[in-house]
Amino acid sequence: MKNLFILFAVCISYLSYSQQYLHQVLILNEGYFDFSLNQTVVPPTIGSYDPISEIYTTLDTLTNSRFASDMIIEGDFVYVAADNILYKYDINTMNIVTTQNISGIRNLAVWNDKIAVSRGDYDNTTFAPILFNSYLQFYNTSDLSFYSELDTITGPKWSTQNMIVENDNLYITINNAFEFGNEKGIVGVVDMTSLSYINEIDLGPDGKNPDNLLIRGNKLYTVNNKDWSGASISEIDLTSSNSTTTNISLVSTGCGTSCLKDDKIIYQISQDTELYEWDLLTAPNAGSPLGFSQNFYELAVNNLDGYIYASSTDFFSYGTINIYDQNNNFVKSFNTSITPGKIIFDTRNTSVSINEINPLIGKENTIYDLNGKQINSIKNTTNGVYILNGKKVFIKR
User: Fold this and answer.
1) Measured between alpha carbons, how far is 70 from 73 in angstroms, rounded to an integer?
2) Which residues pair with 79 in a beta bridge?
């Protein structure tokens, strides 16, 4: 038996080892809806990418939806906002548990047993904004039944989008993005314990049209498209509710093309082929280029390893996702359906028993890390959990 390594399982009882690993990457493909013909050409789909086998699989086709806008994981369930329908899936089988019709549904956030829904829409024929009596509603996560809402007197007065829950408060971007020329730059605050609207944070004239909402420590960040003539980033101190906005470009960032990686906001200017990083600590007037040469639609970071997943599409014929490592080097790519939008990471805990490990001790076999990257040799591993011959093992050097 080789003496280069010892494999064993550890925990408090010394019988198992637990660690998070990437089980699958879920992709919400927005499909292709021809607004001029008012018909669906390619319906939205939900797909899964297995980082071990590197196989992409279509899990469900949302035939009753024109497009899709958001997807989140909460516990054992996946919630999807698609056109005017809220879907709830079992995360292990991806079978639909239940659905709820919600006009203008856009983004989702879960707090305890409630799911918050932001709303906004426009008429397909006139492209005029559709007015709702509520731009923020709440539903029960168990059966997606309606629970309550904030009307336009006691809550947001214009269309809403991204949301984050922090310390029992719901933060929601109010951009009025469906009324061109009248964009807003506000972050609303809801006390989730009482479902009361307690504050609005004005991002200032350069903070209009917040597209993305991110959180780092005790600060929120919004990436703003202003009136589509430029882009900015706003920082909100959650302790004081004070906001500071920095202009970063004379061109907008598009929709969804930004994400948070450590202390940097990664973003792309609309129609550009470069990615930029904006340092949260120094707040520069422009981001630093990262050396990319491709136009992307959606960006997401797997926090387990710092890998960037970046989607590309022409919105009617193809969808592709590229994967880049923590040093921004290209790793691999895979094809999806049309317009791959929201990308989320299904991370799970693994426990390795000592009975699984003993038969594998001393063998040089195909080995992967828990994000699907192949390791050339066990000699190249460090302490941690790996996939060896299809089994999860803990390797101690």
Assistant:
1) 11
2) 72, 88
Task: Please determine, for residue 100, whether its predicted confidence score (pLDDT) is greater than 60.
Answer: yes
Helices (H), 5-147: none
Spell out the alpha helix ranges (H) of the chain.
354-357
Nearest-angstrom CA–CA distance, 19 and 31:
35
Per the CB < 8 A criterion, the answer to whether 246 and 262 are in contact is no
| CATH of segment(s) 21-350 | 2.130.10.10
User: What is the Cα gyration radius of the chain?
Assistant: 22
pTM: predicted TM-score of the whole model, two decimal places:
0.88
Which tokens go with 81?
Answer: 């906002």
What's the per-residue H, E or C state across 41-56? EECCEEEEEECCCCEE
Sign of the Cα torsion 351, 80, 331, 264 reads: negative
Specify whether the CB–CB gap between 187 and 200 falls below 8 A. yes
Measuring CA to CA, which residue among 72, 175, 185 is closest to residue 120? 175
DSSP letter for each residue of 140-196: ETTT--EEEEEETTTS-SS-EEEEEEETTEEEEEE--TTSTT----EEEEEETTTTE
Average pLDDT over residues 232-261: 92
